[in-house]
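Re-run with default settings, no changes from the original entry. Doing this only to confirm the output is reproducible before filing.
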Amino acid sequence: MLVAIVGVGEVGRCYAEALHKAGFELLLCDIKPLPAAEQIASSRGLVIHRSIGDWISPADWVISCVPGSEARKVAHECVDLLPTGAAIADVTTASPDDKRSSADYASKRAIRFVDSAIMGAIAASKERTPLLACGDGAQEFQSVAQKMGAPIQVMHGASAGDAISLKMLRSVFTKGMEALCVEMLTAAEKRGLREQLYNVLSDIDKSGLRSFMEMLVRTHVVHAKRRAHEVVEAERQLALAGVPSLVLPGVESRFLATVSSLEKRPLPVPEPTVDEALQWLLADGGARG
């Protein structure tokens, strides 16, 4: 099977090496390849094409590893040159709308298009980083990914754009948590309380992530006013520790938006379920700041 990798940056290089080890034939493309990419190509007896062209026509699969801002353009260029029945797997961070556009364009030309999201850090786990995939051809891409050693989950019944949407939602959590942990642990370190902090947070490990998140949301709509004051005090404590918070002002705004909504539209029940809490937040823009 012939696989073309467009974009031979960190992700593209990782997949090129894994696919080569798995016995796939490769084609490579990158506008400005780095020395590391040139080295991989040279060691495999390959050239790196500098633009999409007729050379890509024999490919059975194209794996797009370009920057998200370029993904739609690259997908359209590839579709115009690929034969009927070929397939494209877009593993970029392109927007859901761009991936849907690429899928529609590919479908009209009988090219399969897979929206695949990398659910972790390639730098840490290499080709073993989990993938999420959906769209026409996702099942077939699962076979390719598994042969190169990548864990992959197919979203049955989902459409292109859904996988990257889930990745972005995941990033809301992981990147938000990252920023909070940077502020929290640096402040704890300055006060010599880091080990003790781990101890007082240990109860969260016991609840399970889903239960913990749902508990936060359903109790947020009940206790937002009181907790908003706690956020202000936490922000003050970080400032006193010499670590002024960049994150907590936004957290405070989130809580105050809920408080404002509660004043206009009280909860229909005193102790809502998570479903009731989410529907209340969504009812009239309460989930927006």
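The first strand starts at residue 2 and ends at 6. The beta strands are 2-6, 25-29, 48-49, 61-64, 87-90, 112-118, 131-134, 152-154.
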